[in-house]
Write a structure and sequence with these properties.
304 residues; Nucleotidyltransferase, domain 5
């Protein structure tokens, strides 16, 4: 007969051994599951789709191809095979991030949507201006202090000038691509701005004499401040343009530059606020509001 202490010790050792085996089996199973999630089987890799912002694995799913889908669309999206949400996402991604059309094609392909970059080009050309028009229409009242500047755009070996106006909040008002940098070009740009936003209280420019001559003729009551160090806000607004110009391999024509930048600047205005002036919570709220505005415009175009 074993003593009570010996029996208790034997029972304890058996229990510890069983627990160790169960723990080892649990850890092994957990690692196997993790490996399967990170490295799915070859028959599961075909099923990458995007659902509500989350990439999920579906073993039986296949990529969505343009010739296989012909869903009924309404409004401005009528006649298009793909849903309005996919088109809106492609247009947003192209203008929001410094990507080429082929980059957007790869981005959609990673989410299971197979579409050519030429189709994306057609979407951007058709719907980009409509989104920009809606953003300009619904934007709050602009500030009464404007910053104007011009920067050179080399197109096909010829110099063109990009005229841009920014208010004191850092929001781009409008742009205009012209072949001249004189009084006539300045008058044309001022007329376009005054027609859309009215006359401001103060206009800040660099030392280009064409600004002063044009303002004396159009609106002599506006205060004009011309100094090299006062126009940094407008000069800094050219940086996103330079980045996109580099990715696109320079603009191909003045018309293309005008069409692209008029949309690009409006998208950047709502999706790229001055982050250093916001707290983390305020920036997240601003970002959520921007996506809500974009989705609301998409629903408006779909219902038109």
């Amino acid at each position: 007969m074993f003593g009570v202490e010996v029996v208790a010790q034997m029972f304890f050792s058996i229990r510890v051994e069983v627990l160790a085996q169960n723990t080892s089996a649990f850890i092994a199973q957990t690692l196997n599951d993790a490996v399967r999630r990170v490295r799915p089987h070859h028959h599961e890799q075909r099923g990458l789709t995007r659902l509500q912002g989350i990439v999920k694995l579906q073993a039986a799913s296949k990529p969505v191809r343009g010739r296989m889908t012909k869903s009924k669309q309404s409004g401005a999206f009528s006649g298009h095979r793909f849903p309005s949400e996919i088109i809106a996402y492609a247009v947003w991604a192209y203008h929001r991030f410094p990507m080429s059309l082929r980059d957007v094609e790869d981005l959609l392909a990673a989410r299971g949507v197979v579409v050519s970059y030429e189709t994306i080009r057609a979407w951007v050309a058709k719907f980009g201006s409509q989104y920009a028009k809606a953003i300009r229409r619904d934007r709050p009242k602009v500030a009464d202090k404007w910053h104007l500047d011009e920067v050179v755009l080399p197109i096909n070996g010829k110099k063109y000038w990009l005229w841009r106006a920014v208010d004191s909040n850092g929001d781009v008002l409008d742009i205009l691509v012209q072949s001249r940098r004189n009084k006539r070009a300045a008058i044309r740009f001022f007329c376009k701005l005054f027609k859309a936003f009215g006359e401001p209280r103060v206009i800040v420019t660099d030392k280009l004499k064409s600004y002063g001559s044009a303002l004396k003729e159009l609106a002599p009551g506006i205060e004009h401040r011309s100094h090299k160090g006062l126009n940094n806000r407008s000069e800094g607004s050219h940086r996103p343009t330079r980045r996109r110009e580099k990715i696109m391999g320079r603009f191909k024509s003045p018309r293309q530059a005008q069409r692209f930048l008029s949309v690009h600047d409006q998208v950047q205005t709502i999706f790229r606020p001055r982050r250093h002036t916001h707290s983390a919570a305020a920036y997240r709220q601003t970002r959520a509001d921007a996506h809500w505005i974009w989705d609301d415009i998409t629903r408006e175009l779909k219902a038109a």
